[in-house]
Amino acid sequence: MRRALGGAAVVVAGAAFAFFLSQREAPSTVTSIERSPSYQAQALLEKAWALPVAATYRAGYDVQRNASFCGPASVVNVQRSLGARSDQAVVLEGTGVSSVFGFVPGLTLDELATVTRHRTGRNVTILRELDLPTLRTELAKANDPAVRFIANFHRGPLFGRGGGHHSPIAGYLPEEDLVFVLDVNASYQPWLVSPERLLEAMTTVDSATGLQRGLLRIEPGAH
Q1: DSSP letter string over 98-112?
Q2: Alpha-carbon torsion, ordered 178, 200, 143, 169, to 10 deg
């Protein structure tokens, strides 16, 4: 029994350390997007919530249940926006991704793609190595009711603090050139950002994989 408990403690400690590394602070020289007048401007947020895809998220919008659960919470929000019942307590069941005492530290974009495919039954495409024209091409689909996106980004280039994170993109305001990010962290809440700043945060490298972060595009079709 003691050996089993000791082994569990090692696993938990290792998972906690991995999560700590993923959340290391970024250089403080970054000017936070929180200083932008459009970041959480009420009129712009209401306009964003009225977008066709964003409107499907609003009633079922759920925040992550703990600091490591941004990825699973994002999938729950996507499922609910598509009319399915979902809950963070069961979203990982049968996906091959497991939690350790309720935590899933260091969930990569590839692992999240696996969870999303399993839970939605939809075609999920991983988009990495993006440039600005390619991102804009994808953003043109962000208001299509048949398509959903989950962004994987590092908070550092956006806020000057924080670590890797997952959240759905709920829409795009073309006139203002702003992306509507449905942040699943309750401390942040949904916000608006320019494609350039979001791209900078998504092209950071995930130390767990050595690969860039990026986007998941979720759409009808066989997977």
Answers
A1: --BTTB-TT--HHHH
A2: -100
Domain ranges of the chain: 2-219
* pLDDT at position 12: 44
- Tens of pLDDT, residue by residue over 118-142, are 999 999 999 999 999 999 999 999 9
Q: Is 3.90.70.30 the CATH number for 2-219?
A: yes
Cβ burial 24-36 (10 Å sphere, 16+ → b, else e): eebeeebeebeeb
Question: Do 80 and 86 meet the contact criterion of CB atoms below 8 Å apart?
Answer: yes
What does the alpha-carbon distance between residue 34 and residue 40 come to, in Å, rounded to a whole number? Answer: 8
HEC string for 6-22: HHHHHHHHHHHHHHHHH
